[in-house]
Design brief:
This protein is an alpha+beta fold and about 230 residues long. It folds into two domains: about 110 residues, no CATH class; about 100 residues, no CATH class. About 40% of the residues lie in helices and about 25% in strands. It contains six helices and eight strands, in the order ααβββββαβββααα. The longest helix is centred in the C-terminal third of the chain and has 36 residues. It is elongated, with a radius of gyration of 21 Å.
């Protein structure tokens, strides 16, 4: 049961739950609402257990004139810095009110003089789905050149969008992801008993997964220490 992609997970989810209405048909299993439960279930798993990909640094290229970009998979931002061929520097966190006040409240951001990015602010905006949000990073001043913005933080597992997409949960523990999707569905319909049954099973799975992840991380540290 290993090595599933989003379509595989969706097919198993609707067949096991009996919710065939969440796909267009049972020939191609095109999404008709199932993906929402799968993605929500994945986020539950990510918040219950840190995976090897939970805490890391990710790079986002920005071009001259850019001042904002979106991040979908971020849970918590710990630190942001900027780098280019001349070096790197940490940028200071501010709120959006400060950004607007210092760089012209109500003024178009594209009218602000460019420079090296020095400050950033975070805000959330609703995505195309009414229950999904994106985090946006606005930095000031707008970039006067090409830079790489590095964000150190806690991340959700890779977002499942295309049918062929995979991530830690689909590859390593697809059964737990499917059960988490079913837990979300039961919770949405206020079936407390059914939701609790799924959650108890999920927690049992996570005990073993947590042990495996901890053992793997410890082995990695030992190997690195011995290599010296």
């Amino acid at each position: 049961m290993f090595g599933y992609n989003l379509k595989d997970i969706r097919e198993q989810f609707v067949n096991l739950s009996g919710r065939l209405d969440l796909v267009v048909d049972t020939t191609d299993y095109e999404d008709n609402g199932a993906n929402f439960y799968i993605r929500a279930g994945q986020k539950v798993l990510d918040t219950l257990l840190d995976t090897p990909q939970s805490s890391e640094e990710r790079e986002f290229p920005v071009s001259s004139g850019d001042y904002t970009f979106s991040i979908k998979e971020i849970r918590a931002i710990e630190k942001i810095w900027v780098k280019n061929n001349d070096g790197e520097w940490q940028v200071e966190k501010k709120d959006m009110e400060w950004i607007r006040y210092m760089y012209g409240y109500g003024q178009q951001m594209t009218d602000v003089d460019t420079g090296r990015p020095l400050y950033y602010a975070i805000y959330r905006r609703q995505d195309s789905h009414p229950l999904e949000f994106k985090h946006f990073i606005t930095f000031m001043p707008p970039a006067d050149n090409n830079y790489t913005i590095v964000i150190q933080g806690m991340y959700y597992s890779d977002y499942l969008e295309k049918d062929t997409d995979t991530n830690f949960w689909t590859i390593e523990h697809p059964h737990t992801l499917i059960q988490s999707a079913m837990y979300i569905m039961e919770r949405m319909y206020r079936n407390t008993e059914g939701a609790n049954d799924h959650l108890n099973s999920i927690r049992q799975d996570l005990v073993g997964i947590d042990y495996d992840v901890a053992t793997q991380n410890a082995a990695g540290r030992t190997q690195m220490k011995n290599s010296w």
